[in-house]
Amino acid sequence: MRPSNKSNRAATKDHTVQNTRIIDIAERLVRDLSHTFAGRVHDRRLCDDEDDTFPPGWVLLKATGCQGLAPEKVQTYQPKNKPRNQELSAAAKAEKMMIASMRILVEHVLAGVKRCRIMHEVFRNTKAHFEDLVMEIACGLHNFRTTLRHDVLE
Questions:
Q1: More confident residue, 63 or 137
Q2: Does residue 131 or residue 140 have the better pLDDT?
Q3: Are strands 21-24 and 59-61 parallel, antiparallel or unpaired?
């Protein structure tokens, strides 16, 4: 599914794929998964095509590729970049650090999904919709491991 670890990634002609995932930070679970798209599809187009609905009161941490995405009844946060030849205000720095600390939890969940070897090796199956199935299985295994781990700790 992802390009293999070759020395010169720019020269590879690998066909990558991507999905959007909605992650519950409190429980560290993957709550929703989009269909698989080609890797060259822009993140914003991917979000627009999926048209996800969020429960009222949720907080959405957006990546920079999803600028302008503002679902109804949802608070959205996106890190602000430092303006050229200026500094960020103390409030903007604090907000950026808060977003980064939550983003780390999201990255840990994504790393848990990628524990399945099939997720980061070259995927050679050409049957239709198998990429979707592989991603669903990997997310399901991550959610299973996480809930099992939390049940044991309680």
A1: 137
A2: 140
A3: unpaired
- For residue 131 the two structure tokens come to 């990429």
Which tokens is 154 given?
């309680």
* Residues 6+ away with beta carbon under 8 Å from 43: 20, 63, 65, 66
Q: Is 15 left (phi over 0), alpha (psi -120 to 50) or beta?
A: beta
Burial of residue 139 (number of CB atoms within 10 Å: 0-12, 13-18, 19+): buried
- In this prediction the pTM is 0.72
**Structural domain boundaries of the chain?**
9-153
| Cα 99 to the center of its chain, rounded Å | 14
Q: Please report which confidence band the pLDDT of residue 13 belongs to, taking 50, 70 and 90 as the band edges.
A: low
Residue 12 in tokens: 């590879």
Residues ≥6 apart with Cβ < 8 Å to 126: none
